[in-house]
Amino acid sequence: MLVNHAISVSCLLGSALWALSADAEEIRYPTYMPANSVLGLAQNIELVVDDQVSDNCWTNSSSIRSSIFLLMEQNDMRVLDYEPAFNNWLTPRVVLAALGGRSNNGQCYVSGRFLVYFHSSTTLGGANGGQEFSFPTIATVFETDAVFLNSGNANDQLGDFLNGAASEYLARVISSRRSEQFEAYLEAYPPHNDLPISTADWQEYLDSLTGSDNN
Questions:
Q1: CA quadruple 55, 57, 63, 68: dihedral positive or negative?
Q2: Which carries the bigger pLDDT value, residue 19 or residue 88?
Q3: What are the two backbone dihedrals, phi and then psi, of residue 76, each rounded to the nearest 5 degrees?
Q4: What angle do CA 186, 78, 195 make, to 5 degrees?
Q5: Please, is 87 exposed, middle or buried when counting C-beta atoms within 10 Å of its C-beta (0-12, 13-18, 19+)?
Q6: Chain-centre distance of CA 88, in angstroms?
Q7: Residue 119: pLDDT over 80
Q8: Which letter does DSSP use for residue 78 in this model?
Q9: pLDDT tens digits for 30-55?
């Protein structure tokens, strides 16, 4: 009896272990990407100038934007000519920003910033069929800044700084796509060339839904 009981227990344990092993084989764990891999997902950008400089301390923001526009396009980063409805990892917002003015001694004090970010969210809750809560956030993927002092204006300084920052950002984008994990991702999910929906088209779509409800 003891021998038979022992054999039965062994068989049960063996069956349980086999079942656990089979379940384990079915579990597919995610591939964890290297740091900053999200940079490589960008296919388009929204290029924005945030000019908060007074007293003629920055007068060539348009030409700087044009040079960075060209730099992005030359490196296969499509610059949108409209406002996208959503800024996400495929379409981040690139901000060329400067803040400053002329002091009482006639010197221009200007703080410049090159910023790349997109909107994201974190969802919490939902366990056991409970309510989920989505928390919006802004994900900054690249940022650099500098302060300049000049008796005339900061045009050349801001131009060198912002163009250099754009080059560094693009270099990191290209570098982030070279990992084996990222190449595996691109093989599984090739990039598409579809343009993101514009804010105007998205609003038109929302208005059409409202109109349908009223009818």
A1: negative
A2: 88
A3: 60, 30
A4: 75
A5: buried
A6: 5
A7: yes
A8: E
A9: 888 888 899 999 999 999 999 999 99
Nearest to 88 by CA among 32, 144, 30, 136: 136
What are the residue boundaries of the structural domains of the chain, listed by start? 33-188
Structure tokens at 78: 């499509």
Question: Is residue 101 scored above 60 in pLDDT?
Answer: yes
φ, ψ of residue 14 to 5 degrees: the values are -65, -40
Residues 6+ apart with CB under 8 A from 97: 49, 50, 51, 52, 112, 113, 114, 115
Which letter, b or e, does each residue of 43-72 get, where b requires 16 or more Cβ atoms within 10 Å of its Cβ? bbbbbebebebeeebbeebeebbeebbebb
Name the residue among 46, 11, 26, 36 with its Cα closest to residue 198.
46
Sign of CA dihedral 49, 53, 59, 60: negative
pLDDT over 50 at 17, yes or no = no
